[in-house]
Amino acid sequence: MTGLGADEQGHDAPVDDARRFSLAGAFAAAADGDDTLARWVGDFLASHGSDNAVLAAALAQDPHWWLGPLLVPADELVRLAGPEDEALCPIEPEEWEGDVDAMEQSLDDGWQPPPLLAEHQDGRLVLQDGNHRYEALVRAGESHAWTLVFFDDPDARNEFRRTTTFALTP
Question: Lowest CB count within 10 Å: 12, 64, 80, 122, which one?
Answer without folding.
Answer: 122
